[in-house]
Predict the 3D structure of the following.
Amino acid sequence: MRTFLECLPCMMQQALRAGRMATDDDIKVKKILDEVGALIKDIPMDSTPAESGALVYGKIREITGVIDPYKKIKEASIKEAQSLYPELKKAVTDSDNPLLTAIRIAIAGNVIDFGMSKKFSLVEDVQKILKQDFAIKDFDDFETQLKNARSVLYLGDNAGESVFDKILIEELGKPVTYVVREIPVINDVVYQDAIDSGLDEVAEIISSGTTAPGTILDLCTDDFVEIFNQADMVISKGQGNYEGLSNVDRSVFFLLKAKCPVIADDIGVKEDDIILKYKG
Amino acid sequence: MRTFLECLPCMMQQALRAGRMATDDDIKVKKILDEVGALIKDIPMDSTPAESGALVYGKIREITGVIDPYKKIKEASIKEAQSLYPELKKAVTDSDNPLLTAIRIAIAGNVIDFGMSKKFSLVEDVQKILKQDFAIKDFDDFETQLKNARSVLYLGDNAGESVFDKILIEELGKPVTYVVREIPVINDVVYQDAIDSGLDEVAEIISSGTTAPGTILDLCTDDFVEIFNQADMVISKGQGNYEGLSNVDRSVFFLLKAKCPVIADDIGVKEDDIILKYKG
């Protein structure tokens, strides 16, 4: 997905929010905004928003020296998600269609996104999404491809959401490789967050090598790109991964909640819709 | 009021919104965002947001060549407000306290603000504000100063709101000078809008000389500053005028709805509160 004009003010908002998360020093936050403002003119509109995100969050690291501004928030999100785990596991077990319910739960976890200005309440949002109709529901394709896959490559998105991913991975019944970001960016899941979420119990955890808040293949390691291209089935969680992979030359299942109007528009759905989209 | 860090991403949003209003050419809008982004670093945090607003809207004029992007919107706002005029005049006449009701109506008109991302519905918002409690209600001071004033200087804010201002001016019972911006900026009231609102029937209309979306004395003409300093009573409508005048060295009555969290915070009220504030 390309960058839209709406993404540019949004980058400034993200810079402010994340800058404030990293430091109490308003002088430093102003410097972040100055520098992000100045780089707007260099953003190519045919690049993905997540690529610019890598620049924005890089500036925050550079100016504040804080590597992981969202560390405490990520830990709290994982803890909160884990407190819901038993109840959600039961919802899957009790369901007529455990796989579809687990998909819903994995999408529900996608509300845990601190890159957005939108507020969320995990417990309430999960309850809502468990009953919400899908705007796109390519479940038959999902079932078919899963049945034929020897293994699944699962691209994680946010920390906390990762606990809900575990629930879906447990229903897939195939060997799974779970992909995390190389370094902290927003509240995206990194290796340690995946371990804290218990994903090492159900999947092999690897890094895509990216510093962007999304899977942008140009910014990933060659090793990862090869794994990605050769995977039997790819499950991509969230907006950032969608941004990077919406036009790649292979099949991908996108599981996400459309939290931003620009992404909703690009997918052809409405804001707050939930999506299980097959890109062949 | 000084500029807060939150104002900087907001300027980018305003640039996008107003740029889109001025042109369908995305290349030009991108150029506006590039240039506004680049000038963030030069914004002194001790200047008012309205001063930076003058720069932002100046860029839009310069890049698009469009002098008044909100012209049609302003005309529609005035028309809609005029359609409510008879009903609101009756509300004043029927009221136990016509002056206070007219103040409420003038504040209700302050929702017509296209500088904000917040959406509004004039009819519904007016009905709501007519029943809403004031967060600050310095009505006694207002009545006393009005009684003793030979004349009133009334600083207009938005076009459309200007029709509601007429209702308050009719209740003041004193000679009124109504102040407009020198050139179009956002949907702020300029001379022709004031005429279209029928303000020439109840007041003398003058320009402050400013190109900012607010009364920033440093950007006003010397003639206006003299009129301002010597006025018996000053009524200031809206956020932009508050930004410019919150710290000036004379008494002012601020009538506004706090539509932005930063301004609400500066005044010490909550977002969406309505305010009749006396600054002595």
